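Duplicate of #3305? Posting structure anyway:
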């Protein structure tokens, strides 16, 4: 069995991270035919996902995401491609949610 472990730090807080995690779960269901369940906790949420040949979880906290997935024998041959797609999707969602810079603030020149 092949394992995938991905960690991403963020500055979204738990409420913002939840939105990203929900979107990620929706994409996983729509694009990869995953079955996802979302469980909210006090300081950590968890998305459980599975389909034939893969199962795992996405832990969501106020400052990071932690994805762990186990690939079955057949999908293990595609580990690098699958991991790359997961990283791309998660990074795109995080980039779209980055806090906007303050428009009124001016940079000082050194």
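Output from current build:
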């Amino acid at each position: 069995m092949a394992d995938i472990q991905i960690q991403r730090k963020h500055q979204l807080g738990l409420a913002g991270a939840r939105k990203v995690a929900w979107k990620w779960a929706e994409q996983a269901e729509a694009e990869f035919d995953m079955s996802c369940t979302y469980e909210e906790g006090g300081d950590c949420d968890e998305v459980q996902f599975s389909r034939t040949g893969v199962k795992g979880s996405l832990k969501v906290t106020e400052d990071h995401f932690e994805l762990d997935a186990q690939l079955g024998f057949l999908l293990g041959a595609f580990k690098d491609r699958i991991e790359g797609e997961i990283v791309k999707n998660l990074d795109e969602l995080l980039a779209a949610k980055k806090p906007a810079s303050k428009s009124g603030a001016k940079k000082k020149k050194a």
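Confirmed duplicate; merging threads. The beta strands are 2-9, 35-39, 45-51, 54-60, 64-71. The longest strand covers residues 2-9.
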